[in-house]
Specification:
alpha/beta, Rossmann fold, UDP-N-acetylmuramoyl-L-alanine:D-glutamate ligase, Protein-Tyrosine Phosphatase, Chain A, 3 domains, six-stranded parallel sheet
């Protein structure tokens, strides 16, 4: 908690009227700021409630005068930090920070921050469940669910805040210092916003920037990119990985997740308790267990949390079965690396629905995961030509103009015992509001298909 940070009577512009921006505006008003909420959309959500709180609303194109006259600018994660009005404020000497940075300055409890290209939400949720099972006062949020700003008032010295943080949130941090920082993996993503992979990685690395030797860094020891990024971290290390030669951290041994300190190991969770599919989700379980070890969670509490966790919606979510064909929703696989992990969760006879808005990377990198495992690909959205060009030499590819058509084409191409897998490898914004809306559309179409086919849906 920063005892010197105050916004009393300060003129603060919050940019972005999404969940994080609204929470930041409310927090700032409560702390005595004079708040303007600027959003390029013509209508601001919850406008009447915000106006009643005294928030000035500035919808539509940004007025640079609002920004240069401010004492502080607070950015929502979805707002690009480099744009004319914000740059003008910086040039005028106005401080600019993100919503997570703002909230962290007033938290009284310690922060467990979790980032990575794939698996952040699963690791965040399971970590919070483990702490809860151990009787710890815990909140979960950030990029997942509840904005950190809305947790400030409930924060106590004994509270642990488990926070999923994206590259967008981390790039606008300054003093943000997690007690435990977790990097679950690192591969190219969000190259439609970040100028390069190096810029994306640098944003991720900010999770370690303010840590000291009193803090902890939990790193995926199987992931060379993560290990390289954390090389200069000052925090103590307690890693996780499938390589049983790991001397200090969490690994797999004799059918169990174990804690290893030098050469001695102690059992944490039997693999038979893990209810989520796929090697990459098992890695997320190990990451959560590593945090649990640092935080003093007993093995029995870890096991209860793992046994009660069947996964998140839109993350390798089993949807149903029609005439022997299983349907799986991995709409959260919004980049090429996560789509690869999704495909590799199945051995054979996959029909994959892929596509959406291209975020960068090479679809040809999926060739090895597709070859011999995927029977056909059905593409949707703007990236369809790119996917076709990259993967048609490896597997049959066809295009669908809607999710309804994609599900029907995929079912027609599938065989009994096979899987229709939504693994887009792209963002959703060309056709849907977000990945969740895309996943719900997939599930709705599967339900309709089940009724039309007279098949069994469980």
């Amino acid at each position: 908690m920063d005892m010197d940070f105050s916004v009393q009577d300060a003129r603060v512009v919050v940019v972005g009227g999404g969940r994080s921006g609204l929470a930041a505006a409310e927090l700032l008003v409560a702390r005595g700021a004079r708040v303007t909420l600027a959003d390029t959309a013509p209508l601001v959500p919850d406008a009447d409630r915000l106006a009643a709180l005294g928030v000035r609303l500035a919808p539509g194109p940004h007025d640079p005068a609002d920004f240069t006259a401010a004492d502080l600018i607070v950015l929502s994660p979805g707002v690009r930090p480099r744009q004319p009005a914000i740059d003008a404020a910086r040039h005028a000497g106005v401080p600019v920070m993100g919503e997570v940075e703002l909230a962290s300055r007033w938290l009284r409890g310690r922060v467990i921050a979790i980032t990575g290209t794939k698996g952040k939400s699963t690791t965040t949720t399971l970590t919070a469940r483990m702490l809860h099972e151990a009787g710890v006062s815990v909140t979960a949020g950030g990029n997942l669910g509840t904005a950190l700003s809305s947790q400030v008032d409930a924060s106590r010295p004994d509270t642990l805040h488990v926070v999923e943080v994206s590259s967008f949130q981390l790039e606008t941090t300054d003093t943000f210092r997690p007690w435990i920082a977790v990097l679950v993996n690192l591969s190219p993503d969000h190259l439609d916003r970040h100028a390069s992979f190096d810029e994306y990685a640098a944003a991720k690395a900010r999770i370690f920037a303010n840590q000291t030797p009193e803090d902890w860094a939990v790193i995926n020891a199987d992931d060379p990119g993560s290990m390289a990024l954390a090389r200069d971290a000052r925090a103590r290390r307690f890693d996780f990985g499938f390589d049983s030669s790991l001397q200090h951290g969490v690994t797999i041994e004799d059918g169990r997740i174990v804690r290893r300190d030098r050469l001695a190991g102690s059992a944490l969770v039997p693999l038979s308790s893990v209810r989520v599919p796929g090697r990459h989700l098992l890695a997320d379980v190990m990451a959560a267990a590593a945090v649990g070890c640092i935080a003093g969670v007993p093995p029995e509490a870890m096991q209860r949390a793992v046994e009660g966790f069947t996964g998140l919606e839109h993350a390798l979510e089993y949807v149903g079965e029609i005439d022997g064909v299983r349907f799986v929703n991995d709409s959260k696989a919004t980049n090429i690396a996560s789509a690869q992990r999704s495909l590799e969760s199945f051995d054979a006879h996959v029909v994959a629905i892929m596509g959406g808005r291209y975020k960068g990377g090479a679809f040809a990198d999926l060739a090895d995961a597709v070859r011999g495992r995927v029977d056909a690909i059905v593409t949707i959205g703007e990236a369809s030509p790119l996917i076709t060009d990259a993967l048609a030499p490896v597997v049959a590819v066809q295009h669908a103009g809607s999710m309804s058509e994609a599900v029907r084409r995929a079912f027609a191409a599938a065989q009994p015992g096979g899987v229709v897998l939504l693994a887009p490898a792209c963002s959703s914004f060309d056709m849907f509001q977000d990945y969740a809306a895309r996943g719900r559309a997939f599930k709705d179409e599967v339900a309709l298909l089940g009724k039309a086919a007279g098949g069994r849906r469980v």
